[in-house]
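I had to read the description of the data format several times before I understood it. For illustration, here is how one protein appears when written out as sequence plus structure tokens:
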Amino acid sequence: MAPEHLRYAALDVRMAMEALTYERAHSYRKELPESAYETWQPRKLMQVLLDIDPNADRDSSLRIGREQTYGVPATEMQDLGHETVLNMGKLKEHYNALGSYLHMPTLKQLQADGDMSLGKLRTRVDEIIAYVDAVLSSPIFTINFGTFSTAPCSRCGKGFRWRIPRDKDRLHAVCRECDAPYELIVTEDRQVRWEPKQHPIKCAHPECGEISFLWEDQFEIGSIWICGACVGHNQIVRMNRPINEDGTPWQPDPSPPSERTRT
């Protein structure tokens, strides 16, 4: 490869690393948060995948066989192939390093080295090309097996699913649509119970006092909620207090009860 072509090769293999990471993420599309679709940096996107599935960047092999007895592994297995995955280690090792060759060297680099070493770039590009070839030549691609639990969200009504690892009996889940938080509890018979993360709070209007349940992500200083019983507005500060619809502090009506009109 001619020296003047090396930087173009660096750009191409860098884009190949991006494309492979996006392809991997596509197989997790039903589990990805909306924000992940705007993430273009492969390392950040791969970290999202690893948060969903710790095995997302691991190589794997696939074999099948017919069980003679249900639940007992087959004695004869047929090998379907091995998948090589572009993993987080390779992304950390090469992606940003390649990017440094796509810009002019800094004054400090020019002063120290005179120019960036194209010999090092050639070695790096050759190594990545060999690795990308191994990924693309895998006979099986984007293997993604898992155990899932699906439920409709109690807040927005949209259905979503969550991956259930074998080694955990309690999980934190978040609705992909509205970010409502849940605790998932795996029972001894491997059933999954979905518990909304809600907390009781008392309406601060003195004539009401109704107990409501707010989602955990709604408990923020300054957030406003409306009582379902009296339709009174409340604001969470250091303490819960009643407010008017326009956000001003609520004051008790001094007039007799018979003359009051609720707003």
About this structure: The chain has a mean pLDDT of 88.
